[in-house]
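step: validate -> pass
step: tokenize input -> pass
step: predict -> running
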Amino acid sequence: MYVTVRNDSGLALNEVSVAIVPVGRSTVFNRFIGRLESAESRNLMLGDFVGRDGTPFSLRAVKPRSVEVKGQDVKGQTYTVEAPWR
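step: predict -> pass
step: emit ->
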């Protein structure tokens, strides 16, 4: 299974990170992408997300609440978007 991220900002984004936020926000599972070009989509495998202690994400152990994407465009504007888990 995948989380698909698409850049609709109109500019390339740098330092893009994607986080799976569980119910209760106990441990947030992150994945760093780096650069995402304008109108680019990227599929990220759920097993590639890890918690602060290195624990890999598993749907068997964690109930996700949302997915949060953070990035900064080439002009320096910061974007943060949170979408509910479906």
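step: describe -> The mean pLDDT is 95.
step: cleanup -> pass
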